[in-house]
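Good day; I would like, with your permission, to put a structural problem before you. A protein sequence and the structure tokens that stand for its backbone fold form the material at issue. The record follows directly beneath this note:
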Amino acid sequence: MLSGVSEFVIQGITENGGLFQQEGWAISLCNMLGTVGPDGRMLYSAYARPVMINGVSSVVIRNSLQRVDPKAFEMVKQFVAENQLKVRSGRGSRDAEVTGVHPVIGQERRSLESKGW
């Protein structure tokens, strides 16, 4: 998709510059790619995570999703196209190697002291 980067960011901004008004879209998109754990809680995919960037809901998608689950990747592309959302590059391959794959959020909540993924 984007050469030289390991992830891309779907921004909650439409191509015409307006805010995407569908409430909770980032979490919903990540939920569609996730699974339900044995305790009934949603587990996000290691390939997608919701984030806030400058107060705008966004989703970070790892490019490797295309290789691991082509149908899910196509669904993400279709969602972006249908809603005319802006997409930008994320971290480069080297940066992503330093922190590894996005962890799957399980049962435990992250503490406020843990500021990163």
